[in-house]
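To assess whether ligand presence alters the predicted conformation, the chain was also submitted together with FE2/S2 (inorganic) cluster. Input:
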Amino acid sequence: MTDSVFGTSASATDAVEQRMRIQLEVNGDPIEREVLVRQHLVDFLRDELGLTGSHLGCEHGVCGACSVLVDGELLRGCLMLAVQAQGKRVQTIEGLSDQGELAILQQAFLEHNAMQCGFCTPGMLLTARALMHEQDAPSRDVIRAYISGNYCRCTGYQAIVDAIETAIIRSKASGTVRASGASA
Ligand code: FES
Ligand code: FES
């Protein structure tokens, strides 16, 4: 039956409310939930699991605030539905060890005064960590291009590029991370 004002049908409404049971791994923990099929992964992580380190900024894949790792690949949580994470391994900033490469990154960000707000910084750290896994010795131009998908209108990015460069040099020297062509 069609709604005379909005032109919506009962079946369209049903589709919007359709739910599906999913199983996935989040930060090492097995998770099983029934979710709305239209729910985005970042909403699922924040609203259902309380993992609020990933944020919603633009909601259309531009700002990088919703960055998460899915099966080791850096993805936008606002462009992926929770149901698409069925059977996958999801990592958020909360689940990354504060040892190893993340600790090196955090220390370098502190030293270079590169920490921005809690809204944009988690995505930047995840992106920088992914770069550490992909390349041994990226140039500053490559670092700048890589981080360009993480928006912050409050910085000139100089300190952030400095921090990432420092962290990559240190992690390479300590053997903490080996670039493998795949981020994990
Ligand atoms: S909220 Fe996902 S890229 Fe901006
Ligand atoms: S958006 Fe986080 S400090 Fe600018």
